[in-house]
Specification:
- With 108 residues, this protein is mainly α.
- It has one domain.
- Helix content is 67%, strand content 0%.
- The chain contains four helices and no strands.
- Helix 1 packs antiparallel against helix 2.
- The longest helix is centred in the last third of the chain and has 21 residues.
Length: 108
């Protein structure tokens, strides 16, 4: 059974874990597969009901990860990019907690 939510398939947990692992590797300056990260993010968004807040947080997360990966985090600007990546990851995780399955009735 999925720990993310019983309403989602286990693949959701797997993809979410893969995204967070990729972000951790980027934060640590290790090798990162940005294409794989993007693919995992696309799969996650395809498993949930459309939510502009989640979509925005997803794009912010990818852009922040790409910026840190491309330029590193060794200088002052790099430290700022790393902070933005961590904030984007926290925001993405928080917003993903609001996700609903695609067939769920709209809230409100």
């Amino acid at each position: 059974m999925s720990t993310f939510s019983s309403a989602f398939p286990d693949s959701m947990d797997d993809k979410r874990a893969a995204v967070l692992e990729a972000i951790a590797r980027i934060e640590d300056g290790g090798p990162a597969d940005l294409q794989g990260l993007r693919e995992d993010l696309v799969v996650i968004t395809s498993l949930i009901r459309r939510n502009p807040g989640i979509e925005a947080a997803t794009e912010d997360l990818y852009e922040a990860a790409a910026a840190v990966h491309a330029t590193g985090s060794d200088d002052a600007d790099g430290a700022r990019r790393l902070r933005l990546l961590r904030e984007a990851a926290a925001r993405w995780t928080e917003r993903l907690g609001q996700a609903q399955p695609p067939d769920a009735a709209p809230e409100g």
